[in-house]
From TrEMBL:
Pathway, per record: Purine metabolism; purine nucleoside salvage
Family note: Belongs to the PNP/MTAP phosphorylase family.
CDD domains: PNP-EcPNPII_like
Protein name: Purine nucleoside phosphorylase
Amino acid sequence: MSGFGKECAEVVRAARSGSYKLGLILGSGLGSLAEEVEDAVRIPYTRLPEFPVSSVTAHASELVAGHLEGVPVVILSGRAHYYEGGNPSVMRTPLETLKELGCDTLIATNAAGSLRERIKPGNPMLINDHINWSGLNPLIGEEDERRFLDMSEAYDPDVRAALKNAAAEVGEDLEEGVYMWFSGPSFETPSEIRMAQTLGADAVGMSTVPEVIMARFLGMKVGAISTITNMGAGLQAHGLSHDETKQMAPLGAAKIKKILRAYMQSIA
């Protein structure tokens, strides 16, 4: 632990006592889930030592602790991205805070572009593996041998199975696929999309991978779901924009909320 996670956890405990089970990172379109937390305390990131505040307009930058479906949860409503400051370990303190508060499982969500016809905009995709195309890593600079982290099952099989079961229970299709991380903030080129397809990626995005690496380093089990907001560059008739991401994200997010609630019911 860097120390800041413990300090942040103390701030949370001072506002609301108790231990927590599940941590959630809410990506674009999912902020409304944080508003549904029961018996909640809401702490702006600016009140938490060394917590990064996102410059992305769709991210609330607020920690919410309470209960959802009877499960004690800590929600990170919004994330900081590598492209905002060039630090791949920018989410270390938030993740250390979740771990310090007792969260043994992390569910990360994001907005992503699809590379496959079967995975359409407006639908969720369960991430079953990733490709770290950026080459960046939040563990660079770690001095002990824990940095040589096994990533064979970065996305926990039991968590993935539980999310698939939850999707079936609520009648939502949940395709699985490989997520490729590009650093952003510019969107990928059509040639980069063709390369990603060739390498086996099913979706591309600008977040999540460094968070997953850090969460696994901290000993947390991980699951992740993408909201598909568009097809990759060259796969749709029009160009890409962040406005499109913000417009399409709520469609897939509504489905993910149903899946997450069913998942939480299964672990309560």
